[in-house]
Amino acid sequence: MGSHRGTAALLALGVAVALAFMPATPDRRSTPAAPDASPTPRAEAAGSTVTVLGDGSTSDTGPQPAQPPVARLKPGEVPPQFVVFSFDAPTEDDNHLFSRTRLAAGASGAQVTFFLRGIDLLPAAARWQYQPPQHDAGTAAVPFPADAQVRATLQQLGQAWLAGDEIADGFIGQFCGPKGGRDWSTADWQSEIGQGYSMVNFWKTGTGFTDLPPLPFDYQTELVGGRAPCLEGRQNLLPAEKEAGWRYDAGSPGDVQHWPAQTDGIWDFPLQRIPDASGAREVLSADQTEQTYLNAFERSYHGSRAPLVIDTLLDPGNSSQLQVAEATMKDLCHRDGVRCVSFRQLADWLDAQDPAVLNHLRAQGRV
What we know:
Blueprint: H1 5-18, E1 29-31, H2 41-45, E2 50-53, E3 58-60, E4 81-88, H3 97-108, E5 113-116, H4 147-162, E6 166-169, H5 186-201, H6 203-207, H7 219-222, E7 225-226, H8 234-243, E8 248-249, E9 255-256, E10 262-263, E11 266-268, E12 272-275, E13 282-284, H9 290-301, E14 308-313, H10 319-332, E15 338-341, H11 343-352, H12 355-363
Parallel strand pairs: 4-5, 4-14, 4-15, 5-6, 7-8, 8-11, 9-12
Antiparallel strand pairs: 1-2, 2-3, 10-11, 12-13
Helix pairs in contact: 1-5, 3-10, 5-8
């Protein structure tokens, strides 16, 4: 795993740019969790001590629960068929899409990746805290949430992590095109990443919601990858991700299913081109029909066993696609040889393999 020196530097940068009133270095103090503010029943039941971090927004409760064991393949052994379900913009509002997705994943035996945007924890009244690269302070390409939405999202984040789901980075302002990710320099991306760390690590200071318990994880160590809005700007983003010590990038577009490789030490997990329902053409592996996903699964399952990535935007106008993702999880995740994992868990498995075995898998060709 990469050094956390880079994440500390980016955190300090984000604080300096946008949240200057927040402490740049977390003040770690070890205290027993209060009965009315315990972030984790698991830690409380074991009688362990919870380490509250910084301003009390996050905490160290030990290793993440419910993580699958990682085994090294033997030469010639058939690999698992990995399926990664990821979900963009996990904001909990009156539509309850975040909680619905979390519960559906649990019922299907899946652990998934949620690409949290920093803006999801920044109420509209505090929008001025965000200093987007190449844009005016307090602006974004998507709406800032209401106070109640931020509170509900925080609750769901803690429950998702305790269930074994990954909280990854979906970045903040969602700017695309001119003056967006496509045009951002590495320094711009470093500012965006640093501000994202601050919005999670210091959400109590940023929101004023000091009555809520801390999140049950240390975002400084848990965050290991992200996906850029509109899949843009990867050339300048990768150096910023490397500086942050991230282990994967999920923001390259439209590659055919194949066993992943690394770029400068970072795993490349692109959205994929998969056969559509008719099989006549290929489409991006986001917001498709269930039959399209099944076609992609069958092609890989009976071929190279390359991982399949399925991405869904958690938006009220996209509820039909959430139904598709739920149905696909229910169908695939209990099949023999199938493992529905997060991007982080896929990176864990890849890191544990013999490079010669991975090279052999890649040599089998795509899908």
